[in-house]
Amino acid sequence: MKLKLRLILILLVFANLKSLAQVSSDKESVAREWIASQAKELHIQPYHTFKLTFVRKSLAGETLRFQQMLHDVPVFDNEIVVNFAHANEVTFTSNNYDETIANINTIPVLTANEAIAKSNKTLAFKGVITHQECKLVVCKISNQTKLAYRVVTNAFDMSGSWEVMIDAQSGAVLSTKDVAVYHHKKEKKKKNEAKGENKNALKTTNFVNGSAYVYIPDPLSQAHVAYAGDYVDNSDATNASLDAARTRVTLPEIDYTSGVYKLKSSFVEIKDLEAPSKGLFTQATPDFLFDRAADNFEAANAFYHLDDSMRYINFTLGIPCIPLTNSGVLWFDPSGDNGADNSYYSSGTLVFGEGGVDDAEDSDVILHEMGHGIHDWITGGHSSSSTGLGEGSGDYWAMSYSRSLNQWASNEPAYNWVFSWDGHNEWWSGRVTNYTRTYPQTGSTYTEIHTYGQIWATALMKIYDVIGRTKTDKAFLEGLALTNSSSNQKTAAAAVRQAAINMNYPCADIQTMTDKFNAAGYALTALPLTMAAIADQTVAADANNTYTLPSFSSLANPIVANCNAVVTQSPVIGTVLAPGTYSITMTATSGTATVSQTFTLTITPNLTLNENSKTKVAVFPNPTKNQITIKGDFEANESVTIYNLLGQKVTERKLLSNEETIDVSKYESGLYTIYFNVSKASYKFIKE
């Protein structure tokens, strides 16, 4: 049963993500109207158009991404993002539209194959290509608008993910750079370097349970000790203390094919993508039980944390988020980057280095790099590194998990340490989430993206400590989904707060976010008075077949700065209502501002009243097509009310004799209830 349930959940997640990839929305016309209304303010040029390329429906509403186009060629990394909160009202936008893109010829002279050949020659790699893509784009190079082929290549003997821009008219190489996203800046010592070939092959997948020894999240936090004595890297050597810090965990899914077990699940798959070549660590047993001296340990450790985090996002939080490449599966190489002490994310792939403390031994490194991937996928491939947003987001995702384990007290330094095992030692200084500087920063010392990102991670963790992990994680992920490739920390803060509002977080939570973000220097705009739409409610009448209106203020949840709105309702609290359908209006007032929302309240009759009185009454024929007859010994002043299945009143009349006929020929087919208002009895009949 558990296996069947897991398969159903996985299918639901992937079905949801498949629907996102269809790139269509009934809100497209409204979004385009909004873009048109901003044409003057954005200085939109008449020769620029916008193509809907990505639609995301999730907890914070529906988000549409419009790619800036020039003659049907995309302008690289430029778009307008429009978010709707469960209605046709635009609630948040972000854009990096570039009005300076000139109206150039977009018919290429060079072919895509010729561009790839030039890129390969420029990079001069010799190993097997593990990933390569080539796209025709319009871009700005040295302030000039160019038509170019953007070729991105990963190769086994080449550390990183290399972008080469080739002029599509002249064939000239316009730029070459590594676009992989690394977890820290400084180059480190290398351990072992080796060359080899990538021999991965697709096989039919059969998932089974497995187990593994892992660090949760690292040996220092698990043992609650400092980096010293037995708890040091010591060239990957193990000892009794480091072995004792391991935890045996269940791997919910691993691949079992032809008697061979492999670290592959619905979400994550091991790959041998870069030197050093250490293989895929397949084996004949489902139990990956190793100590840190074995490379198998890093493989299992990375696999467990990546797979666990993917399941947490998609299943626990209910937020659809998988890679945009590799058929939605995250690839990882636990021994790559040519042995350097660094790790990186690129194009749905994670590569972990082995210098210093092996990066795949520390869940902070693993989840930081995955954080870059999340940022990439949830923005449809438009993540931003501006002002360290990407690095801070990765640090937050790592710290969100490790702090949830409650292994350090808030007054201990390690409580705020990111990379507790991989950093804060002789190899490098790591990072923190109690960074004291505020946004914005100037000067090279503090604007390096890894340093700058600590402001963002610190602000998020301060919110986390007040409203908790689940709420902060949801708002963080849904907020990132509203940003674009040039969004800075301030824009992201506004987006996270708006996502929380869209998800109807209590005003106190929104105020916490505002306070913590503003303390970090983001200077968010004051919130106007708003109230989310209230869902219709259905309730049952009481023993007297009436319903006394309670306060519905908790449903109203008005949002305003300082959370000082006063809520009233109409009809007022305490009003006694009979079964039926009513409109309830909630009004919030703050100063001179007022906002209202109306919802439908359906009160269904109490159908369990005085069942014994039915023996004195006959209702026939039942079922009926045209009329019903009610016969019995009725009390004085008896009357009946007929309700449909929704509890809506259809007919009400007095009974003038002990036998009455009621015409029901115009009723819709269905189940109806006759309620005797004096004797408090009820009877059901079917209209055919």
Describe the structure.
The chain is an alpha+beta fold. The protein has five domains: about 70 residues, Nuclear Transport Factor 2, Chain: A (Roll); about 70 residues, Nuclear Transport Factor 2, Chain: A (Roll); about 325 residues, Elastase, domain 1 (Roll), CATH 3.10.170; about 80 residues, Immunoglobulin-like (Sandwich); about 70 residues, Sandwich (Immunoglobulin-like), CATH 2.60.40. The strands form nine sheets. It has a five-stranded mixed β-sheet, with helices on one face. Helix 13 packs antiparallel against helix 14. The longest helix is centred in the middle third of the chain and has 22 residues. The protein starts with a helix and ends with a strand. The N terminus is likely disordered. GO terms for molecular function: metalloendopeptidase activity; zinc ion binding. Pfam families: FTP, Peptidase_M36, Por_Secre_tail. One of its GO terms (cellular component) is extracellular space. This is Putative secreted protein (Por secretion system target). It comes from Flavobacterium aciduliphilum.
Most strands sheet: 5 strands, mixed
Percent in helix: 25-40%
The CATH topology of the largest domain: Elastase, domain 1
Shape: globular
- The strand count comes to 32
First CA to last CA: what distance?
Answer: 41 Å
Quaternary assembly: single chain
On the 0 to 100 scale, the average pLDDT is 91
The CATH C-level class name of the largest domain = Alpha Beta
Strand-pairing-aware structural class? alpha+beta
Strand content: 25-35%
Question: For the CA atoms, what is the radius of gyration?
Answer: 31 Å
